[in-house]
Amino acid sequence: MDNRYDVVIAGARVAGASLAVLLGKLGKKVLLIDKAPFPSDTLSTHYMSHTGYLEELGILDKLLAGGLRKVDRMRTHIGSSYIDGPRSAYTVIPKRDRLDMLLIERTFLYEGVTFLSETAVREVLWDQDRMVGVRIKGKGREKEVYGDLIVGADGKHSTIARQAGAEVYHDTPPLRPVLYGYFEGIPPLETPTTEIFLHEGRIGFLFPMEQGRDCIGLEVHPDEFKTMMKDSPEAFVRMYKQLYGMEKRLENARLQGSIIGTSGVPNFFRKPYGNGWALIGDAGHSKDPSTGLGINDAFMQAFLLADACMRIDAGDDREVVMEAFQKKRDKHLFPGFQLTLDYIHSLKRFSKNELALFQAMAANPMVWNKVAPKLGDYLREGTRDFPLLYQSVEMEAEAFGYDKDSSP
Description:
By secondary structure, the protein is of the alpha/beta class. It has 14 helices and 18 strands.
């Protein structure tokens, strides 16, 4: 039957398309659908720091061949000073029309995978309490399709999650609006570097993409969003020029397209499975984009679910396997969720005295000669109320040779 599949995946962005690739490798018959035309852009964090996923899916070389820069440094600006350092691995920062289309094209290698764009889920189909299929509509016609597993990779407002009644937990409302745009003509730093600006309780970011194109953005106070979108892009550029060095660097910059914005992103986990269905990507877990973890999280969930499918095929008990899938997902994602919410809740305007001391310290090598040997102690003490932050720094330091067993 041409309407019967092993797996039906609603949503063909990072999570859904990568899952289709992984299941295609296993010889599964898969239907991958998305309501959008492709290639097309979508709201995104852009930040792809775990490039191992891209390599395993077979698209890393093609992404790099398109001119993406390898970004291996990060700079944090506070006032007119900054801290700058290397990262333990390089990051690539692709536009989503390119990334998502490469993943979809990868599915074409597998005879069992069918892709339909501009096709939306209209209704979920049930056999008693088991989800068995979906009614889809695309390009003027509706049809029913059936699968042993129906996967919702259809975003924060997932139709699959809603109709399945997926339980929501750790639910936190949207905290901060985000706006961003793609610009050409911004003078680059000597080395491709992610730049973060902490200014007046806002976050500015500059992501180097291809040579000559950068994504720049602002996470702003809630009461600023409507005014900025109404007066976009002028208000956006005016605010961005307040950040250190950016008035000059934006002199000859040109916006490509328009400023993209959202009033906020919900923060939650959903139970990611039930009888005949599963959730991955933003459908299963969402958080504020300030820490840039969303794309990496989506890939990770797709790999976990593909592994669960393999275990079920091998004869393991489905309920046991899917419960383990949820536990692994939450174990991986919950620390980043906590770090992100703490980061956003703790953002504030630095006081005049705080800024003055930071500027004086940043420019004084005698201070750093004294402070550097004690930085670990200071950070551990300063994060007693939130030890996860110290632990995350320590883990990153291990990639640079830090040996916590030999530290005093």
